[in-house]
Each structure stands twice: as structure tokens, then as C-alpha cells.
Amino acid sequence: MNAPAELNSTALSIEDFFALVPETTLPNGTVVPSFKVARFAASKGEDGKVIHSDSLKPWANINYHDARKACEDSGFQLITETQWLAIAVNAASVDANWTKGKVGEGKLFRGIRKGLVSEAQPANANSHIKERRQLYLSNGETLWDFNGNIFQWVFDDVQGNADGLVDRPFSENSPSIILAPYPSMEKGMGWYPSAGSNWSGFALIRGGCWRSGGYAGVFRLNYVWPDGDGDGVGFRCTKSL
Fold first, then answer.
1. Residue 13 pLDDT > 80
2. I need a surface site. Which of 5, 55, 66, 156 has the fewest CB within 10 A?
């Protein structure tokens, strides 16, 4: 059973903090097996380990390598590029995620991005921040902050090496840059690069943060040096079925 759109942490088990993403065939033919993804960007518990919470701020100031380790130490995995794309493509197919209530009409909703706050916010801050943070999947699952509030590290399993770092330029048919249904910066897609861009050696980040403005969106793609640990970048865990 899906968790409610507004969560009460004290009443839920760890399983309630993960959403089921159905098996997805991306428009380029890539099949992404079904998996579970954390509804929220990871937070940091008192013991220094990952905690999933709607009332704690996302865990920022953590570099790519430490984010991967934090997920693994808690029995999870860092979200991959193809998993993120599966979520983005699925969300873009749902009427409720478009500002005019119909796929392709208006813009895809984007989350906290207007600079009205000075740091990433917990999910339960939604009631007083007038920027729609939730995205809904076709199976009714609800996710927070794939479209703003805090960038999230992504393990690149498309053009990345064994460590998930970008290893070659984006090809013309790279799913990382061709699967958004509209061009970069149009209809709420967020910004993403063009073919030939070479981010080799960097780690991917997606979504946007509270100060990203019109550049934020579920298809937003950017990069940071993997040892970087700024306050605008966090991470999200996944788990196998």
C-alpha cells in the first residue's frame, strides 16, 4: 500500500519511506528493472548514518564518495542515472505533475528553487513553502524533491566508469540528454547539457536546489567534482526488491 502524500514519521516503518518504482522501458529501449527509492533525500541520524525522515533536513555537505558509502553502510545503494531517468520519464507521463493538469500542458512542476529559503528544507516544511515539491508516479507513489530543494549525487551507469564517475563525453544518443520530452529549459524540464559536452572525471548531480531558479526540474543535470561537499548537494538511496 502506498504511503499517504503527507507523512507522519512516528507512525511509519522504514518500508513506508521507500516507494516502488515499476519496471520502466525508457523511450530509447533501455529497460530499468523495478526498484524501491527513498521518498526523501537522505538525512543524517544522530549516529552519523542515513535516516529517512520527513522532519529532518536533507544531509548536505557530503561528497560523492561519502554519499555512496553512507548508502552502502545502511544497506542501500546510491541512486543510478538510469533509475533517476526512469523516475523522471514516469513522472512526466502523469497528468498531476503538470501545472495545467494534463501531460504537456503548462510545465512540469518544479520544487523549492526561488531562493525563498537559505538551505534545504525537510519534507514537512511543504505547508508554508508555496513551491510544489511532490511528484507522483503512474502507480500512485509520491516522491519529494526530485525537482528542487537539494541537488542529489547520481551514480552514472550510462557514460560512467566502475565508480560511477563520468568517463566520456555525452554521445548524441545518450539517454542522459535525449529522454526529456522537451528541450532544456522548456516546460519545466530544467537545464541539461548538449551532446559532446565532456564532464569526464566529474560526478553527476540532478534535480536542482533551493536557489536554482528556472534551471531546476526533474530532468536537471549538472556536475560537481566528486570530492566537492557544498551545502546545495545531498543524496538519495535506493534498494532492490
1. no
2. 5
